[in-house]
Write a structure and sequence with these properties.
The complex is a heterodimer of chains A (about 260) and B (about 280).
Chain A (H helix, E strand, L loop, with lengths): L1 H32 L11 H14 L2 H32 L1 H15 L7 H8 L3 H25 L3 H9 L4 H39 L4 H10 L3 H29 L4
Helix pairs in contact in A: 2-10, 3-4, 3-6, 3-8, 4-6, 5-6, 6-8, 7-8, 8-9, 8-10, 9-10
Chain B lengths: L15 H4 L2 H26 L10 H13 L3 E5 L2 E5 L1 H33 L1 H14 L8 H8 L3 H26 L2 H9 L4 H12 L1 H25 L5 H10 L3 H27 L1
The chains are: A mainly alpha (about 260), B mainly alpha (about 280).
Chain lengths: ~260, ~280
């Protein structure tokens, strides 16, 4: 009985959603075949599906995927090290925190990715520009979340540490950091998502690198099915990345 | 008898820094940081460590900024009379128009769909997952499609802004509906309000913080989506001005434009934030 209720409440809506998605795809295919939609603007969905294999083989998608992943990992690593360090520094230096926290929050709301022409001038049209752009635009949330995590450590835990006469370093590594880790990871995850978005975006804009460049190149060649297929591939990669990081976050924060 | 032979310690000089109120110390630290940043910038500009003009002097950037906002170099006809204004305002007007249109279309669509998803668990279970996972994808990759659908003019930029802002608004609205207290909904039902009245008298007022939060997030990404599209393919707008400065290697102008843009974006964000608290 309970399993039937679960099926009706959880599984049926999902199946309905997937069915609707498939119905839309079929409707588009039919509308193009009937001439209601211009096939030179929207290619046949069947043609897009058929293009996946072609672009994976001909456009060397695995190598591009690895390049984008590598850039995202490099930016994420820098984000994690620099962001957490700066957050910890601000937590330790209260006055500096009061002076700069609102600035960091303001920077977080600024469209930093628009600085990519500046980065092009400084670092050239290279992977470094893409990595640095991903890093800079994703840094503020990591700093702010680290700060939040360290600041919201329960006082009782800190008092326990002090009662054991822990040194400041021990107090940090044994109490503060483990307690703040779930919140810090929320920041790192946000940062990684921002970094991936900006990395693919800048690859597309400067026509250099991995998956973003693939979309741009196919669009410039007016390979419509290929462009749509490449966009679907990028979406797939983003969704997988998002789900994986979400699972890790849930593992770290079981209550959420 | 006066005590002699003892050197009494002079009273310790009062520690001015420690005695200062916290707010003033924060202010002084901010000033010191700003002075430090300016000094480092000027030192790098003068050092020749980087290619010439990559980091121009702040004075040059300031001059460029002043020119951008004050130098009248564009003719406008208003009510039959011709006036000259800085061209930057024309581009700012174009970008503002594109972002405002995108926010209107994407925001309204997001609000309506968010209300539907939030009030209907079946629809939410069917479709919200797709929106949740599509939200963090890089929207700029849709730009080639938007060009094919809406052309190379402002339409494709508006479309980019629209799809950028739609996701944060729809997810915030859906979450906001679910946070409306059930007692308010019961009160509405007990007064036999129809669906429209329920939305306008109960849901929307109760969802105000969520909606404003969504609009705030949506505005940020709509600005980014629109401007990135302008840098990719456009002949007007602030994004075009920035990429044009890059193409002509006019670095002081590029820095000045970026500063202006950040000031406008941060200001707009702060305004929406203040509205949410007001």
């Amino acid at each position: 009985m309970a399993s039937r209720a679960f099926f009706m409440r959880q599984v049926v809506p999902i199946l309905f959603g997937i069915a609707c998605l498939l119905a839309v795809v079929v409707a588009i295919e039919l509308l193009i075949r009937l001439g209601a939609i211009n096939r030179f603007i929207v290619p046949y969905p069947s043609e897009i599906a058929g293009s996946f294999k072609r672009i994976i083989v001909e456009e060397d998608v695995p190598a591009r995927f690895l390049l984008t992943t590598g850039e995202a990992l490099a930016a994420s690593l820098m984000l994690t090290v620099v962001g957490i360090s700066l957050g910890a520094l601000l937590h330790r230096m209260h006055l500096l925190r009061l002076a700069t926290e609102t600035w960091i929050a303001a920077v977080a709301s600024a469209p930093l990715v628009l600085m990519y022409p500046l980065f092009l001038v400084i670092f050239g049209r290279s992977a470094l520009t893409i990595i640095m752009m991903g890093f800079v635009s994703a840094l503020p949330p990591v700093i702010l979340k680290t700060l939040e995590g360290l600041s919201t450590t329960r006082v009782v835990l800190i008092n326990v540490g002090r009662s054991f006469k822990l040194t400041p370093s021990q107090l940090y590594w044994k109490i503060l950091f483990p307690s703040a880790l779930p919140t810090i990871f929320v920041g790192v995850r946000l940062g990684m998502i921002f970094a991936l978005i900006n990395i693919v975006g800048v690859e597309f804009l400067i026509n250099f690198g991995g998956l973003g460049q693939l979309v741009n190149e196919l669009a410039e060649r007016y390979d419509l099915p290929g462009t749509y297929a490449a966009i679907c591939f990028v979406i797939l990669v983003s969704v997988v990345f998002f789900i994986v990081t979400e699972r890790i976050e849930r593992w770290l924060r079981p209550g959420t | 008898m006066a005590q002699t032979g003892h050197l009494t310690a002079a009273p310790a000089a009062p520690n001015i820094w420690a005695a200062m109120p916290l707010k003033r110390r924060v202010m002084w630290l901010r000033i010191a940081l700003l002075v430090g940043i300016v000094a480092v910038w000027e030192a790098v500009a003068a050092s020749g460590l980087l290619f010439r003009d990559v980091v121009p002097s702040l004075l040059t950037v300031g001059r460029s900024l002043f020119d951008i906002v004050t130098k009248p170099d564009y003719k406008v006809t208003l009510g039959g009379s011709e006036i000259w204004i800085p061209e930057f305002y024309r581009h700012l007007w174009v970008t503002t128009g594109e972002v405002a249109t995108a926010m209107t279309i994407g925001g309204l669509a997001g609000l309506v769909i968010g209300l539907l998803l939030g009030t209907n668990p079946f629809l939410s279970g069917a479709f919200e997952r797709f929106l949740y996972y599509l939200g963090p994808t890089p929207k700029i990759i849709f730009f080639p499609i938007m060009i094919m659908w809406f052309g190379v003019g402002p339409g494709s930029k508006v479309a980019m802004g629209t799809i950028s802002c739609f996701f944060p608004v729809v997810l915030s609205a859906a979450a906001g509906v679910r946070q409306v207290e059930s007692v308010l909904i019961r009160v509405g039902r007990s007064f036999r309000l129809n669906s429209w009245q329920m939305v306008t008298k109960i849901y929307l007022p109760a969802m105000r913080p969520s909606i404003i939060n969504g609009v705030r997030l949506g505005l940020g990404v709509a600005v980014i989506g629109t401007l990135l599209a302008e840098t990719k393919l456009s002949n007007q707008g602030v994004g075009f001005l920035i990429i044009n400065s890059y193409s002509t290697f006019d670095m002081p102008r590029m820095y000045a434009l970026l500063m202006l843009l950040f000031m406008v974006a941060i200001g707009a964000n702060a305004l929406v934030g203040r509205a949410s608290r007001g």
